[in-house]
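Dataset card, provenance and construction

Sequences and ligand SMILES were collected as paired inputs. For each pair, a complete structure of the chain with the small molecule in place was predicted and serialized as structure tokens. The example below shows a pair involving pyridoxal-5'-phosphate. Curators did not alter the output after generation; any descriptive sentences attached to a record were derived from the structure itself.
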Amino acid sequence: MHDPAPILTANGPGSPESSGHVELRSDTFTLPTPAMLEAASRAPLGDDVYGEDPTVTRLEALAADLLGKEAGCLMPSGTMANLTALLAHCPRGGKAIVGHESDIYVYEAGGASLCGGIVYDALPNQRDGTIDLADIEEACTVDRSDPQIAPPAVISLETPQNRCGGLPLQLDYLAEVGQLARRHGVGLHLDGARLFNAAVALGVTPAEIGHYADTIQVCLSKGLSAPIGSVLVGDRKLIAHARRMRKMLGGGMRQSGMIAACGIIALTEMTDRLAEDHENATRLARGLSRLPGVRLDPGPPVTNMVFFRIRDDRYTTRSFIAAAARRGVRVEELGRGRIRAVTHAYVGREAIDRAIAIFADLLASGPRGAEFPARHESATMPPR
Ligand SMILES: Cc1ncc(COP(=O)(O)O)c(C=O)c1O
């Protein structure tokens, strides 16, 4: 086996920083750490479809324990973890109550409808990422004996809520939705792709967040730097069902201990450092808020995501993003003319300061040559 460490150290060849650009599009660009690659190369392995990969079993138990649940199941992705959860909670023709800005609804290819015959009931997310309790109550209050009605079977919340500024849901809100779900006999699923960021931001344990939900999915491959994987946790019965759904979707993996070994490092060594990413997000937001032509939206970050708009007639959102990319800072548009910048382990303080300086220069000097908006782009993007 070759020695992987030199390829993938934070500033080594192949890393986002080594290529000279500041990668702020997503924390999914993080690379596995040398400790992960070392652990993957030494992990005891077996066939996990037979339930015989000891490293996978260890990771699943660890994740379940951290989140206060009975069982866990390693999934290839957050998308599959969310989908298997909805399939486990909801029968065909049942209703999944989701936020209209949730990843499940916006970015997961309608999987629950396609694979499970499930109806999405997409309720408005508020600016803080919550769904109004009255709206959830109304969506749950149906006459189950009426054959016209798709009966609600699961509520899905997301924390932190990505498209609402990466804001974590408060524990008292989760408690209220949990009570409401129980009262109506529906399940509560939590898309906790970045749940450890939420825990750090709220100063609580992951289990305190997980307490109110029946199933939770956490991603290993975002700010925690593992290359692949999510874990779905819940009670034994739901997880056994989700495991069957995973196999049906083609997600049963064999020697997946190689992935799980990285996941164990992610959960044991990479969660505390997320506070650093949050500090860097605050630093970036402070720098941006001093620039004319920048407006933070919704406001200062709470986790590792900074959302902002460009209010400068010389740029459209798209032309600003393209100009920044040409100068070595990568950000992306995340709906309705907002730009998202995500901090992570490969963006240190120096890189943040470099990004601020480049944004400042773009706004001070205006577009040059190719940086002018294309003729068909209006300078102020229409709302979507
Ligand atoms: C909130 C949220 N949930 C789920 C996912 C899906 O995860 P994956 O990309 O592993 O399928 C993402 C991906 O970015 C996400 O941001």
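Derived descriptions for this record:
The first strand starts at residue 22 and ends at 23.
Residues 16-29+272-365 form a domain with the Aspartate Aminotransferase, domain 1 fold (CATH 3.90.1150.10).
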